[in-house]
From TrEMBL:
It comes from the Bacteria. Coiled coil: none annotated. Keywords: DNA condensation, DNA-binding. InterPro entries: Hist_DNA-bd (IPR000119), Histone-like_DNA-bd_CS (IPR020816), IHF-like_DNA-bd_dom_sf (IPR010992). This is DNA-binding protein. CDD domains: HU. It comes from Tepidibacillus decaturensis. Gene3D superfamilies: IHF-like DNA-binding proteins (4.10.520.10).
Length: 89
């Protein structure tokens, strides 16, 4: 399911206009992204938790040249499903 299909399904099931559901979707994604960029967790009970995890610096390889390169330490987004989601899937 992609974004368009999700928005249309929610609109159909709730009776809310597609453009209104789309606006709420955009705000939800923006709020989650903003919180993660601040290093905060976003916990949706029954669904899961969005958080950032620190990925250590490491050596990698440039696939075009085969040359070894140093990859910097960085934070990456992660999702941990909640108990209810795990049971449903």
């Amino acid at each position: 399911m992609n974004k368009t299909e999700l928005v249309q399904k929610i609109a159909k099931n709730t009776g809310i206009k597609v453009k209104d559901v789309d606006a709420v979707y955009k705000e939800l994604v923006e709020a989650i992204s903003e919180s993660l960029s601040k290093g905060e967790k976003v916990q949706l009970i029954g669904f899961g938790t969005f958080e950032t995890r620190k990925r250590s610096a490491r050596k990698g390889r440039n696939p075009q040249t085969g040359k070894t390169i140093q990859i910097k330490e960085r934070n990456v987004p992660a999702f941990k499903p909640g108990k209810a989601l795990k049971e449903r899937v």
